[in-house]
Design a protein that fits this description.
- The strands form 2 sheets. Strands 3-2-1-4 form a 4-stranded antiparallel beta sheet, covered by helices on one side. A two-stranded antiparallel ribbon has the order 5-6.
- The protein folds into 2 domains: about 55 residues, no CATH class; about 40 residues, no CATH class.
- By secondary structure, the chain is an alpha+beta fold.
- It has 4 helices and 6 strands.
Length: about 110
Amino acid sequence: MQVNHVHGLKPGIYRFLALKHALMVIDQEDKLIDKITEACLGQSFIKDAAVVFFWAAVKEGMVWRYGERGYRYLLLDAGHVCQNLYLSALVIEKFIIYRKERVGYSKWKIFWKL
């Protein structure tokens, strides 16, 4: 996750360690948010977000374990993790906003407004 504006945490990239229920610092470079914004197709709202979440997986491990269905299971797991994030945000009464920018127009979609 890219932490931008969270009280008590320095801006940077962190990894969530589920078994320890802790955060591990990956990088705290000063201009890192500019690189993240560029990777998100230059969408300017990324710089204003408190936290930006990213998901990563090792598809070879899933294919090794589950065979041909491993890639499908990987996508299902990613969807479940994302849904849990949405539900957690709902419980703590925060907005989940998705912004999609394309050439020539910008569209906002609010999933939950609390």
